[in-house]
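Researcher: Let's run the pair from yesterday's discussion. Sequence first, then tokens, for each.
Model: Starting with the first of the pair.
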Amino acid sequence: MMNKIIQYQDKVLKLLSGKMEEFYLAGGTALSRVYFNHRLSLDLDFFTQNFNPDAIRKIVANLEEALGKEIKLAGQTAGKGKIRMVVYYLAIDKENTLKMDFVEDWVKLIKPLKSVDGIDVLSKEDIYFRKILAIAGFIESLDGVGRKKFSGGREEAKDFYDLYFLSHTFMNLSVFARAYCDASHREGLIRWFRTYSRLDMKTGIMELRAQARPDYNQMERHFKKEIDKLIEKEIEF
């Protein structure tokens, strides 16, 4: 089953090569396919800073024609204060479906996009930052004393593992957070580590399809060390 979905990922990306204009591959699939090959990611996440529903519909229609497969709209978000997103499912056969997300990216790029086989891809730094936003939250509000804070973070094993891999392999989390995150994001990161469900995360980690068997306890120790360093720097600052 997984092999068939990966094959269709390859087909879709080949068909979209040179035709995506303002869209770029993001998320765990970009991190795995382009940079680390550390886990299996079965979705395709395309981000854009110029969200255009008509352009998305055209891309999907062209894919349907080229593949001879039905692609159904599964859901969408819109409205004031919400990130616009549309989700499509490509029906490969009765048992296999490829999920494709087209997402409005409101975050300024840290590094230039990387072109791979005609598809623009987020840099490791930009994927890293968006992973932090995913867990720390990105819904902005003010606390009781008027300080900016973020909420709405998620607790998913794939983000936990991706962040660990980025921190362990690319740049330590404490170093990255000091370099690229503001105080509110760092506070959200610390809050996430203190409050996420250890039992749920450990269960989710065991279910990941990774190249090497993930060791939750090792990852937890790594994050504790990095969060302790981050708190130490916050106190010094």
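Model: Moving on to the second of the pair.
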Amino acid sequence: MIGLSRRDFTTGMLTALGGTLLSGAASSENPVQNGGQKPPPKRNIPLGFDNFSVRAWGWNADQLLDYAIRLKVDSVLFSNLEVFDSFEDPYLRGLRDRAEARGIKIQVGTVSLCPSSEAFNPKFGSAEEHLSLLLRVAEKVGSPVARCYLGHGGDRVKGGGIRVHIDNMIKVIETGKDQALRSGVKIAIENHAGDLQAWELAELIEKAGKDFVGATMDSGNSVWTLEDPLAALEILGPYAATTGMRDSAVWQSPDGAQVQWTNMGRGQVDWNRYMDRFQELCPGVAFQLEIISGGPRGFDYYKPEFWQAFPEARARDLAGFVRMAANGKPPVEPEGTPSGKDEQETSRLKQSFDLEQSLSYCREVLGLGLS
């Protein structure tokens, strides 16, 4: 790669693995799943993506920004600090300036900030030091949010249970209050990988202080905590500072339900209804796609031991999820899903295909995006 800039390398890779990326189902000129009907009215909701959607590429911040420019999105969420080549001010300001010149808003995030969670990694120091770094990076690149999360579903039963971890998370978040308020960056905690139900995250935000703490509202993770994404929207929408969005399929199994994340429009979320409420509850909040594919996951809620993880579960939340399962069925693989010469190339091609198809659906069916 001697003599090639990161930008040239990114462009070359996208072209070489070709025809699949930035084409076909992903093109804004080639609408999907609207039957060729007239495009819907624009909702004027910023549309973007979380870099986890294309994690197999291993791109850094510059390469991800190149990709965001090519996709003509309004925003991009760098959801882990490892994408940055440096935390020095000139480098971060350079990213901000290049993004702003193309009309793209960079959002910044990281991983677990709960020191008692199994997911916590001391790579960036203590949880408090990690939070301080996150807020500084967010401020320098012009991000209005600092996305983070507590942990994952295992924390619901380990380390004393989810209440212990919530309390520990609040203690860490409170140490960043002055820095967050001074910089104008809102700490945006995600409902992540089965760690928190919507009402638990809302309670955490209220206790920590909603003047500087909000939510990264993840529609896919709602079904991992036995919630209908529409019901979770009603709870978390008023707190949302940013998002991580994907569709989900839920269907019945002998012991409960199976769940599988899907591309937008290929699951069973009623997205037009969702977006109507999103506009009302989340004005100005970016709709960031975090498309994650993979096989189904079982939730055996007919087994008594399952409920050890949800000692305070609410019947009305479960009822909505059970209703989804009763009306659902396994998803069908999108037509035209690409494959490569090996597992790595297949993962890269599929992740880009899934994201780009979902962006097209959001634009052509839901009317999302500012341009």
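Researcher: Give me one sentence on the second I can quote.
Model: The first helix runs from residue 6 to 16.
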